[in-house]
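mind reviewing both lines:
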Amino acid sequence: MRKAYLAFIYVFLYTPIAVLMILSFNKAGMPTAWTGFSTDWYGRLLESPKIIAAAKNSLIVAIISTFIATTIGTLLALGVERRKASASLDALLFTPMIIPDIVLAIALLSFFTMVKFTLGLHSIILAHVVFNIAFVCAVVRARLKSFDWSLTEASYDLGAGALTTFRKITFPLIWPAVVAAALLAFTLSIDEFIIAYFTAGAGQGSTTLPMQIYAMIRFGVTPEINAMATIILLVSFILVLTAQRFNRGSVPGT
């Protein structure tokens, strides 16, 4: 009974995704009627200047925001774990993970408007950094829960400075969690739509791939959109799976 219930849940969750992926190979332009197998729609993605430009923008935003968020989130996790546990501090740190994206997007747009900050790719990057720091901090802190802090204390006793201790002791021990956090942040940034939509400003120059999909889907779902969604799904799945494997390896005994 338990296996049947679990199978039903998996079918319920993944059937729409499977249908989308199958229809991305549909020969005809009809999004719902199967007329034959074809990979033409994937080729058309490479022929669209708007899609290529949007994909480049998404990669720029994801790479830069991931680097900044991973750096800040890792240092934040190290600092928080050395302090006395505080429920109020944890709640403050993880608020960006809990509140709805639409609320965070409006708050960021209001802040940028208030300080007269020009919107564009740079504002999306800053917004994604704010969004991702909490996720990076959470993943790295999970590894630090089992971290042996006596190793760093021994390093200090032997005359090593803070930077040397971090470079030779701390980072080598937590790097799988840092990589996992970075992959997760990259995935979230690539897929994120609402915050990017609110903080992008006007113009094709700051349009990310999810925003381009939204602009295209208003005229109807086509196999071309299904193909693009399939690529994003596969990339996201691979990155999340890789992040889980790194994170699993960062915990002793796993």
In short: Residues 17 and 230 are 8 Å apart (CA to CA). Confidence is low (pLDDT under 50) at residues 250-254. The two ends are 30 Å apart (CA to CA).
